[in-house]
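Notebook B, p. 112. Complex prediction, attempt 2.
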Amino acid sequence: KAGVTQTPRYLIKTRGQQVTLSCSPISGHRSVSWYQQTPGQGLQFLFEYFSETQRNKGNFPGRFSGRQFSNSRSEMNVSTLELGDSALYLCASSRVGGVQNEQFFGPGTRLTVL
Amino acid sequence: GENVEQHPSTLSVQEGDSAVIKCTYSDSASNYFPWYKQELGKRPQLIIDIRSNVGEKKDQRIAVTLNKTAKHFSLHITETQPEDSAVYFCAALYNNNDMRFGAGTRLTVKP
C-alpha cells in the first residue's frame, strides 16, 4: 500500500506570493491533517479535514487555508507569503479521522520564502 | 490553546543506558498519546502510543507510561543504541483529530 505523498517536495517563493501544496493520503484514509514544522516552533497543527470538511483548526492566520476533495486528497494554500512561513509542511492521514487513530506522515514539502 | 510540554529538549546518553522523556498536557479530556521518532531529514514515524484506559505499554525496548491524574506521560527507552539517536515528539489528541505536539527532544546515543 502506498504511503502518504506530498507534492512538491521543495518550493522556493518570494514574499507576497501564494503557494498551494498537495497531499495524497493512504488509500482508505479519510482524514488529512496539516502541520508546520520549524526549528524554533516544532510541529504546529494547522488544520484537519475529514470528508471534505474542516473539522479542527490550529492558531494560524487566515492566510493559511485548505480544502479536501472527494477522493480525500487535500490541498493547503498560503497567500501573501511572509519570510516566517519558511518551513517544512507535513501532512498526515488517518483511517477514520475520529479519536485515537494513528496518523501516518508524508515526506513533507519544504517551503522557502525569500 | 491547548499545550503539550515536553522535556528535556536535548538528551545525551551512553550506549546501553536508558533514556526517559516526559510530557505534560492540559486537557483532561485527551485520551490518546502517541510518540513519534523523526530522524534527520525524514518524516515523523509512530513508535508507540497509549490510550487513556491503560497505564503502561511496552514494545521491546520502548515503553510509555501515562498518569491521567497528573496529566503526564513518559517515554522510556532501555538499552539505547546509536540508531535510537533522533528527535522524539510526544503528542496528545484534542477535539477528535486535533493532535498537539510537544516541542521535541533531541536524543543522542553515544557509542
